[in-house]
Amino acid sequence: MPVAVPVLLCIGVSTLGWAQADGGSLNQSAILAEPAPKFVWPPKERALLGPHPAGRLVEQGPTRVAGGLTSGTIAEDVRRHSREITGCYERFELLRDGKSRGRLTLAIVINATGRAASVRVEENSFADPGMGECIKAGVWTWYFHRPGADGARFSYGFDFEPLHQRKKK
User: Fold this and answer.
1) CATH topology for 53-162?
2) Spatial distance between the Cα atoms of 21 and 2, rounded to a whole number of angstroms
C-alpha cells in the first residue's frame, strides 16, 4: 500500500504538495480542509474543577530607566503581556491562597535587538518563588522596542490582588 509523505515542490514558486511513495498524488485540499478539533471539558469534569480564582494586576510601571527606551514604550511592551503575567499570579498564588496579594519587581536588561539579555527578581513578597520564576520565564520570550546600540536597563514593579477583594482607599 502506498504511503503519503509531505514533499516540497519547487516549480518557480515554492508550494507544499503531497505525493505518494510510488509517485502518485493525493487530494491535498481534502487533507488540509479539515480543521483540528477543539478541546472542550465535559460538563462533569468542568464541575470538578470548580470556580477559577481571578486576579488583578495593578501595574506600578518601570523605574530607574537607563538607555534608549522611555518609560512609556517599556510600559506599552509589558502591557501586551498582562494576561500572561496575571496568569502566573492566578496559578502560583491564588490557587494556593485565594486572598494572596503582593508585589513583584523585576530588573531587566534589554539588548540592541529588543530581547531580554538579563532578567532578575529584585523583590518578591509572595510565599512561592515560582511566581517570580513564571513571569521571569515569560520575559525571556518577549519582544521590546529596539533601544539602540547601547540597550536599556530598568526595574519593573507589579502589584497583585484578588479581583473580589479590592483595597479600600
Assistant:
1) 3.30.1150
2) 6
